[in-house]
Amino acid sequence: AKAMPADLTVHKWHVFQHIKEARGALGATDRALAILDALLSFHPETALYGDSELIVWPSNEQLIGRANGMPPATLRRHLAVLVECGLIIRRDSPNGKRYARKGQGGEIEQAYGFDISPIVARAAEFKELAEVVRA
């Protein structure tokens, strides 16, 4: 993801709306956007901050459940589309599992899964693309 200001804050559902409107320009499919919608729903906050941990680690089964039951092969294919479009970044663990490791105080020290920070870093770009599509 691009370097972003630590004080940058975006509303995830507003940015998602801009991404949906600009999906043709981004190369995203409707199924990929259904998965992005599901991924965003795993982040507990509506506001996403540039200086916060923006990795979600749902299992494929959890993602399938929130993405209206799409087949596993379809899920994997459209996750790859999201990566290719620069909407998410894979943060793989050594064993390929998605999880978070918490420290003594309960804070997340290390997380493996999908990094949604490009949503924050590229929010202004998505808004501009959506405005061009609307015009």
Describe the structure.
It is a single chain. The chain is an alpha+beta fold and 135 residues long. It has a single domain, classed as Arc Repressor Mutant, subunit A, CATH 1.10.10.10. Helices cover 47% and strands 17% of the residues. It contains seven helices and six strands, in the order E-H-H-H-E-E-H-H-E-E-E-H-H. Strands 3, 4, 5 and 6 form a four-stranded antiparallel sheet that branches. Strand 5 (99-102) and strand 6 form a beta hairpin. Helix 1 packs across helix 7 (123-134). It is globular. It starts with 8 loop residues before the first strand and ends with a helix. The mean pLDDT is 92.
* Uncertain stretches: none
**Architecture, CATH level 2?**
Orthogonal Bundle
Query: Helicity, in percent?
Result: 40-55%
Q: How many independent structural domains?
A: 1
- Give the CA-based shape: globular
Taking Cα atoms only, what radius of gyration do you get, to the nearest Å?
A: 15 Å
Main beta-sheet annotation: 4 strands, antiparallel
Distance between the termini: 28 Å
Number of strands: 6
List the helices and strands and how they pair.
Elements: E1 9-11, H1 12-21, H2 23-26, H3 30-41, E2 47-49, E3 55-56, H4 60-66, H5 72-84, E4 89-91, E5 99-102, E6 108-115, H6 117-121, H7 123-134
Antiparallel strand pairs: 1-2, 3-6, 4-6, 5-6
Helix pairs in contact: 1-3, 1-7, 3-5
